[in-house]
Every structure is written in C-alpha cells, then in structure tokens.
C-alpha cells in the first residue's frame, strides 16, 4: 500500500508541474526528496553496535542502496544518451573541448569537497579524498537540465554531447 501511495503522489506532483508547463520529472524528484528513504523504513545502519546486532537485516539494504543508484544512473544514461550525437565529436577540437569540460567539472567538485572535509573534520587525507570522490558523481538534476536545454534548442546536439559525457 505504501508503494501505491508513493507512486500516486509522484504522479500527482508530476501532473501538477506539467500543468504549469514545467517538466513533470522535477515534481517527481521533489516528492522523492520530501518522502525520502525513511518512509519505507529502509535506511543504512550507521552505528557500529547496531550494525553488529542487525547485520543480516542491514546487508541487503546496504547493497541495494549501492546498486540501485548505479543501475538507475545507467538506465538514465541510456535514456538521455539516446539524444547524444557522438559523431559530432569526430573533430579533434570538439574532443579536446569535451576533455577540458570533463576535467574542469571533475576538479570543481572534487577539490573543494576534499579540502573542506579535511579542514572541517580534521580527518585523514584518505577519508577526505573519499568524500571528494563521492561528491564527484553526476547529478540527475544536471542531466535533466541539459535535456531541457536541448529540447528548447538552447544547446546544440554537439554541445549537449560534450556536457553529457
């Protein structure tokens, strides 16, 4: 019953945003953020004592919280990737621009997250680097924004491909 209610709320919010000429997926994301994982009672155990006591219950949930986002990311990449035009990257200049965009986007997310983690928490460089790497994941909202820009002809297919990669 909970899943039915969640899906109903997601669809209603998507429909409401479609009425005001906004992408329905934004409303669906808003519902997901508001509801969160805790509604279904599934979340990661963070306390070590709790984890030792309930590892059998926590292990499948932990594995699912790792695998599901990557699977969803792969599925979204396939969906949004259908609009990419890799043929537009045949030119060495465009390939170089793509590499530059990728390098700048990676450094802009990685360096501040790593340095702030080190400065604020005073943890090891290994821990801080791990946080920096985890913060460097592609955001769903970024991909949605790129897709909307492509639909509105703000981005050319070649530039969309560069940013998408």
TrEMBL record:
- Could you tell me the Gene Ontology terms of the biological process aspect for this record? proton transmembrane transport
- Specify the protein's topology with respect to the membrane: Multi-pass membrane protein
Q: Which UniProt keywords apply?
A: Ion transport, Membrane, Signal, Transmembrane, Transmembrane helix, Transport
Q: Is the Secreted keyword given for this protein?
A: no
Where found? Membrane
Q: Is Ion transport among the key words of this record?
A: yes
A Pfam family that this protein carries is Na_H_Exchanger
Q: Which domain of life is it from?
A: Eukaryota
Residue ranges crossing the lipid bilayer per the database entry: 28-46, 58-81, 93-116
Q: Which residues form the Cation/H+ exchanger transmembrane domain?
A: 78-164
InterPro entries cross-referenced by the UniProt entry: Cation/H_exchanger_TM, CPA2_transporter, Na+/solute_symporter_sf
What GO MF terms are annotated? antiporter activity
A GO cellular component annotated for this chain's UniProt record is: membrane
**Endpoints of the signal sequence:** 1-27
Q: What is this protein called?
A: Cation/H+ exchanger transmembrane domain-containing protein
């Amino acid at each position: 019953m909970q899943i039915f209610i969640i899906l109903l709320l997601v669809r209603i919010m998507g429909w409401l945003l479609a009425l005001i000429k906004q992408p329905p997926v934004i409303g669906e994301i808003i519902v997901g953020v508001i509801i969160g994982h805790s509604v279904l009672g599934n979340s990661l155990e963070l306390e070590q004592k709790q984890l030792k006591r309930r590892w059998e219950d926590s292990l499948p949930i932990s594995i699912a919280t790792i695998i599901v986002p990557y699977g969803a990311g792969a599925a979204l990449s396939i969906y949004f990737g259908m609009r990419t035009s890799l043929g537009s990257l045949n030119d060495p200049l465009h390939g170089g621009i793509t590499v530059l965009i990728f390098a700048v986007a990676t450094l802009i997310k990685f360096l501040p997250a790593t340095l702030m983690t080190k400065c604020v928490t005073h943890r090891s460089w290994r821990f801080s680097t791990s946080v920096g790497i985890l913060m460097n994941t592609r955001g769903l909202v970024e991909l949605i924004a790129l897709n909307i820009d492509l639909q509105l002809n703000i981005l050319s297919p070649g530039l969309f491909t560069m940013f998408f990669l």
